[in-house]
Every structure is written in structure tokens, then in C-alpha cells.
Amino acid sequence: GCVSETCTRHRRYDASASPTAVDIDFEGKTLAANEMEERDQVAISYGIGEITGEFVRETVCLAVSADSRSCVSMRVIAATEMTPEPFNAFDFDGVLGLGLAGLALDPEFSFLGQLSSARNLAEDQFGYFLSRSDDVASEISFGGVDPRRVASELHWSPVHKPELGFWQVKVLSVTVAGEALPLCADGDCVGVADTGTSLLGVPRQASQRLHWLLARKVNVEDTSGLDCRETAGPDLVFELEGGVKLTLGPEDYSQAKPMQVPKVGGGSQPVCRAALLPVDEVE
Questions:
Q1: What pTM was computed for the model?
Q2: For 157-166, what is each residue's pLDDT tens digit?
Q3: Is residue 177 part of a domain?
């Protein structure tokens, strides 16, 4: 198990306390007692950090009641080491991967895939609701979409190159306040839906222009109680393949706190900025 300070901040999984846990190697074969000392490990990057872990086959359930329809046998990685950054800052204790099969080390690592293979889902779908307020919990649903959490009619855009494993879609155009950016003029733009980040990733060469278009000056002296997500700003619109238009308002793309920009001659100007992450394009 993991005994570092980073791990002890969290609730830890103990395979020895589980009647359904089986220690396995990289290929999924059960380990004999004399193979436990030098067992296979894997290192996985997560954001700016890394997890090192060992392989276990376990029964994983969605519900505490362990209804057989909500349980699957799958392979999991039990952490033996976690870097302080970013895991010291996280409240959650584990990561449930929801990528497509192309990203999995083996199909048995895919929770959604195993649920689907066992025909335990009403529909091969999941939906996630990201709350705007700490007073309302975010949610994820398996087997369909919770209609109580849907803000509008559902629209569907096809996954682009699903063999890569990402929930990736083709982006036909990007506009800010009606101004089309030349970013997607050549027709090869793509975007990835990722629940593991709170930032909006944009190509590095376009990030400065997009920052400028989405920035708003705030003409108040005291910004201590200012929330930029509640400050008026232009719409950011993504046109996706399949006739889908995704519109983000300032409440979706803004950083909460304004940035203080120095003025010529002294003082500073508070500016509301977008939460953008410059991303280097990979060929």
C-alpha cells in the first residue's frame, strides 16, 4: 500500500481487506505468493503529477448496496506512490477513467466498457452535471442522462477518430461576439471533452488573441467581492460537427477573481480574464 504523506491524506484502498480482490500482473494473470515481492508496476501521468501503482482485479460497484446490476469485475491500479503536486490539493481519493477503449491499458480497465459488456446499463451512455455552486453537488449518471440536470434539448456530435480513445469532436468554427477566429479555417480543428480540468485548453498560437477578445475591464475600486463569472462579457461559440453549436457565456469561461493590470503612471486596472490553458499542438 501507499504510506507517503500524500496518500495518508486520503482514504486508502486495502486489497487485503477485500474478499473480492485478486493481485495480478500487467497481463492480468493471478500472482502466486512468491511473486508478490517483485510485482509489475505502472506509472501514470495525471495533470502535472504522477501516480505509481500495482495491478489488482476487483469487483467495483456503483451503489453501496452492491446490486449485481451495478457491479463489474475489472482491473484497477492501486497507488503505491503519488506526487505531492497535485494530489495534496485534491479532496477526492481516486480517479475513475471514462475514456474510450483506445486509452485503456486493457479493455478490462474500462469501467464503462465492462458495464456495457455485462449488459448492466439501460443505455450505453453516461452523463455528467457540473454544478456552478458549491451548494449543489455535481453528479454523474450511468446508463442514461438525468433529465432533471439537462438545461436544453440534447444534441449529438459524432466522436472524431474514436480509436484514439478521447471524447474528441470536430470543431468547424470558433466565434467571439460574432467575430469568427481564423483558427479553424483549414478545417482540421478538434476539441476534447475532459472532466478532469477546469480550464479551457486552446492552441498556444491563438491563446493571446482569445484572451484579448474575452477580457473585460472592471470599473470598480473595491474588487474584494467581485466575481468575474457574474460580470457581463461576450459569448464564445463553438460550432461542432453534426450541426451542434456550443455557447459559453462569461459564467462558463471566466476566472473568478480579476487580474490587476498595471497602468502607465501608476495604479492598476482590474480586468476579468478567461480561464484559458495554452496547449501545444501534437501532430
A1: 0.83
A2: 999 999 999 9
A3: yes
